[in-house]
Amino acid sequence: GQSLEQPSEVTAVEGAIVQINCTYQTSGFYGLSWYQQHDGGAPTFLSYNALDGLEETGRFSSFLSRSDSYGYLLLQELQMKDSASYFCARGGGGKLIFGQGTELSVKP
Amino acid sequence: NAGVTQTPKFRVLKTGQSMTLLCAQDMNHEYMYWYRQDPGMGLRLIHYSVGEGTTAKGEVPDGYNVSRLKKQNFLLGLESAAPSQTSVYFCASRSTDFKKNSPLHFGNGTRLTVT
User: Fold this and answer.
1) Which of A4, A104, B9, B38 is surrounded by the fewest CB atoms within 10 Å?
2) Are A94 and B37 inside 8 Å of each other by CB?
3) What is the pLDDT of residues B12-63, one digit of tens each?
4) CB A26 within 8 A of CB A42
5) Exposure b/e, B57-83, CB count within 10 A at least 16 = b
6) Sheet with B4-7, edge to edge strand ranges
7) In angstroms, what separates the C-alpha of B3 from chain A's closest C-alpha?
8) Is the pLDDT of residue A1 over 80?
9) pLDDT digits (tens, 9 = 90+) for A9-68
10) Which residues of A49-77 are buried (b: 16+ CB within 10 A; e: fewer)?
11) CA gap B44, A66 in Å, rounded
12) Which residue of B lies nearest to A45 if distances are taken between CA atoms?
């Protein structure tokens, strides 16, 4: 299978750190990426991991452990504008399959 | 550059009607995708294409057909619309195989209602 699992909702306060987890099935796995979507608009790319370890892009970091079939997105210094849906996605054989998304609510 | 353009932006159909959604990209991308998004269901892959003249089924292909006659265009057809096809449809494209970091570029979506 090629499905992914992520929590449906996460709540955090402004200025805090939040981690959004994603587990995936290993069949044909090439890499894990993360996308952000505000209010049903076009999703936008955040980060990508093909190898184990941490990738850092400003306040956002993404981690992958291929041996554990697990990754996460780490958001630091949360801002109100980070309230959005976050999707992990896996690639393999041309397909790109998304998880069901995690809705992040940032509270003041 | 316009990126990925979807037309139309909104459409209301009656059950049994047909329509075609058009996706156009100006980035010379090889790969193109059609997704549908329903509340709580995330983005589900309908069909995709890895190059001009080739298409393949995704996770939820039933009731849809696609064509990629030109590299820059990817058409999604509904031959006989059903209320279950009420959704937001997103087109996306990317440049190379996912082994490399080639992120998806999305269009703004088409909001389709079937009554």
Assistant:
1) B9
2) no
3) 999 999 999 999 999 999 999 999 999 878 899 999 999 999 999 999 999 9
4) no
5) ebbbbeebebebeebbebbbebeebee
6) B4-7, B19-25, B73-78, B65-67
7) 12
8) no
9) 999 999 999 999 999 987 778 889 999 999 989 999 999 998 999 999 899 999 999 999
10) bbeeeebeeeebbbbbebeebebbbbbee
11) 23
12) B103
Hey, are the CB atoms on B109 and A42 less than 8 Å from each other?
A: yes
| Interface contact A98-B35, CB threshold 8 A | yes
CA dist B95 and B50 (Å) reads 10
Residue of B nearest to A91 (CA): B98
- Chain B interface, mutation test: which of A27, A34, A96, most B Cβ atoms within 10 Å? A96
Residues B34 and B89 sit within 8 Å (Cβ to Cβ): yes
CA angle A81, B87, B36 (to 5 degrees): 75
Distance from the A23 Cα atom to the nearest Cα atom in chain B, whole angstroms: 15
